[in-house]
Amino acid sequence: MYGFLLLIPFLLIRFVLLSLLNREAVPRAAYFAPVQGGERAAYWIYQTSTMGIFLTLFFLKISVDFSRQTVLGLVCYILGLCLCAGSIAGFAAPDETGLNKRGIYGISRNPMYVSYFICFLGMALLTRSWLLFGFVAVFQVASHWIILSEERWCLEKFGTAYEQYMKSVRRYI
Fold this sequence. Notes:
By secondary structure, the chain is mainly alpha-helical. It has helices at residues 7-21, 25-30, 39-57, 68-91, 111-127, 130-158, 160-168.
């Protein structure tokens, strides 16, 4: 089975589910907070590593057996998709101030990024690709810098409401 097939459920959840739940949330999800300094490089590394993940999957095959690696990969992949769906549902329904604090956003301030990492890690395990794993690792490091810029932007936009949210909910898990 071809690796690019793993992208189909991911993209359906990420884009189709979001547009079905709240069409107005789609541009919000595509918005990147303004970056400054080293965050600019992180933004481009993030975009490049995402493209690397997607393109690499077109050249890989999924290993279908009952090895620990395959089972772990399948668990990570499915867990990542479920977390992605939950984070999309929460993102589609912000509170009256515009903040996403409901559902899975009450556990993690960045569940979408966490879900992407888990899902992509599952893809790397299922395809047994060190190259894909490398792209996933670079993606995750760059994501951290993107998250820092988003947090700065949220503090500017939402003020003390976001500051309180930061105090009560962890950045990741």
